[in-house]
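User: My collaborator sent over this chain with a note saying "see what the structure looks like." That's all I know about it. Can you take a look?
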Amino acid sequence: MNYDKEPKGVFLMIDNKSFYASVEAVMRGLNPLKVVMVVISEQENTNGGLILATSPMAKKLFGLKANVSRQRDLPCDPRIIMVPPRMNLYIKRNLQINEIFKQYVAEEDLYPYSIDESILDITKTWKLFGETPEEVAKKIQHKVRRQLGLYTTIGVGENPLQAKLALDNFAKKSNDLIGTITYNTVAQKVWMIPKLTDVWGIRRRTTERLQKLGINNMNELAHSNPYFLKQEFGIIGTQLFATAWGIDRTILSERVKPKENSVGNSQVLPRNYQQQCEIETVIKEISEQVAARLRHRCQQCGELTLSIGFSYQSTINSGFSQSLKVIPTNSNVEIFKYAKEIFQKYWKGQPVRNIAIFTAKLSYQIGEQLNLFEPFPRISKHQTDQLVDQIRAEYGFTALVYARSLTKGGTAIQRASLVGGHNGGNAYE
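Assistant: Without extra context I'll predict from the sequence alone. Here is the result:
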């Protein structure tokens, strides 16, 4: 493979090691690498307590996996420290970490990838801080460790893909928590990755399809016919071939603008809901949240989708998802009316476990078409919605709730303190 025309830069993919558990350990004055700690969300919809994060030692001793293992999988061992999640704290730490990163790159060269991973394009700046990119990586590690007590793992590459592969497959196993892949070392490193599923972007189903074609590892993938891969997988086949050769032509500064935005919310219920009034209570709560988010953006929706997921233990059908074109609106009352209309048309009494409402065909609210014979009630409802938004923005969501949320089945009050479904805040923006 001739790499002469491929883009060459210097990229760092930085991961905060066992982020949630490490933050909790530091807050308690404990060593994140030595403490046996698990962060457990015990919300009702987690089916017995979901382990969100494990410290490296907990993972090593008990083989626990974040977002897979449950509280019931924990052995009875006095060394294990169980703590609830604090999502707002983790967001705060993430922001602090990224502020440290900005000391090494311009803001436009910093790309937060997730709450615990960031990509730094240090192509233009690394020589200001060290003799090699690896030396710069060590300085970043030491600064984060010194200021926040957290350990970071860093992958170094000549493009974002190489940095990610270096992070996942080499840095996490290295004593200094730094790994490097370049175009010159693709054959020695990328092709030697033992499992296809260890490679970013290659999941179990893709692996199974590749294995049926006689491709069992990265070396075989790299030496496959790229035209055959494209024939079998479409554009993904081309991407797989490029991955095997460590090629990534992504220009991170070129942000992709989606063709059409969507605003929506979904919820996993704490139990199976079978009573229509209870289900409609949650639909109303989600409708209000979606409507509030639209108003915050000064937008209206022209299409609404309601998705209902049934309990997999109680019915052979997974659920339904139906859309409805509507007159552009961001009204609580109207969005709930449309969602309830879909629900009553397609629900046949099945136990419900998941509810989602999404809006599309968004437009900016620059005016409103009024009915000359009944304008005032509609204007009054719109003003009421905005007043409620203002009160909640000032004093918090629970400062003003509709009485229906106090009835059996309502979840809005309990969820008001959540972030991402776990302890920490709710989004109405």
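A starting point for your reply to your collaborator: The CA atoms of residues 93 and 308 lie 35 Å apart.
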